[in-house]
# Entry
Amino acid sequence: MRNPQPQSPVSSITERLSGPDARAPITRLFESLRPDLLRFAHWLARDRAIAEDIVQEALLRAWRSRDSLKDAGAGRAWLLTIVRREHARLYERKRLELVSLDEAIETQASAGDAQPDEQLFALRHAIMRLPIEYREPLVLQVVGGFSTEEIARELALSPTAVLTRLFRARNKLRVICGMTAAPDVLGSEALP
Amino acid sequence: MTCEQTRLLIGAEPDTTTAALLEHLQSCPECSRFRDQVRAFEVNIRRALEQPPLSSAAAVPRPAARRQGVPWRQWALAASVTFAMFAALLVWLLRPSETLAREVVAHVESEPQSLLATEHVTAADIAKVLRGSGVELDVASDRVTFASNCWFRGHYVPHLVVQTTRGPVTVMILRHEHVGSRQRFHEAGMSGVIVPGAAGSMAVLARGGGVEGLVDVEHDVRWLPHGRS
# Structure
């Protein structure tokens, strides 16, 4: 169920805590990373309200299992992983039928004003158009800072498969942005 | 490494610098050129992903597959849907300014770097951001530390940060948002006002309680007469 009025996940947690807990390092960690988590979830879900829900659920989940975080330095990767899994869980659970992204983008494009940076605008559209199997590893790598091996573990893929997806993700972006595609060095398998 | 292996690695991990890769690049100008192209494009990918995506209805759930029903049921359903859409439209049109304030605060929170910037923005860059917005800013450019056009509620809007004695104050020119009167708000540790203007409105906000210090900035924004933007 989506929240009718998304509120800050951090504030919703701190409101439930009493006194000293609200200033605990874990809460400060949540607060400092929340913008990153929200941006990450937003690129995965492509919808602000859903991203808010995902981050809120993820932070609650993280709070319940906070004892499993032994190294505060690993907090960012830990939280990003929880957000990614919450996103995957949401779509497994709801199995939403999605509106065509083309329709959504066309609606926005026609309604938009003159864009200050057309190339960047086009690229953001292009990333939105990427299928989730390409967008997810790209976002994990660029936004999350995960290595190929970490992405492979998280997505239950081989490192080679992750490299392939990352290569093809960037190649697809080149094509969508009107650039020449790099030859698919991965053999005869056609780009889907 | 072969050229194929090199290009796969570069295309997947543009920043990678393994010894084997560097050795191959030294002897292969084509792969070296390919790497330069990928890296140049990578800068744009990173810039694109630095911001949240364009707000979209991309993941709006659709109703389940339609079922055949008797005509009156279809009419009843159509009437219900029409009523619901009308009600939703009415709610949207009459949505309280609190929602606008919440979204303004959420936007500022999503761009924390805007409040941390310390280098001043040039007068030319400020003018570029404000072009077409219908306002001018009567502030010395050395007090403006952030100026950008940001995607907000379906439009690009000027987003500026002005340094004041109470700290950084955010100004967003909301030409497409109309409010009936001046609205004060307190949300998520921020305080501010939404002020109606000659065309649309503007939001002025800062961290902390109270709206002291915001009025000066508010008065520094001058709405231009219609037709001059």
Remarks:
- Residues 126 and 176 of chain A are 6 Å apart (CA to CA).
- Chain A touches chain B through 60 residues (CB under 8 Å).
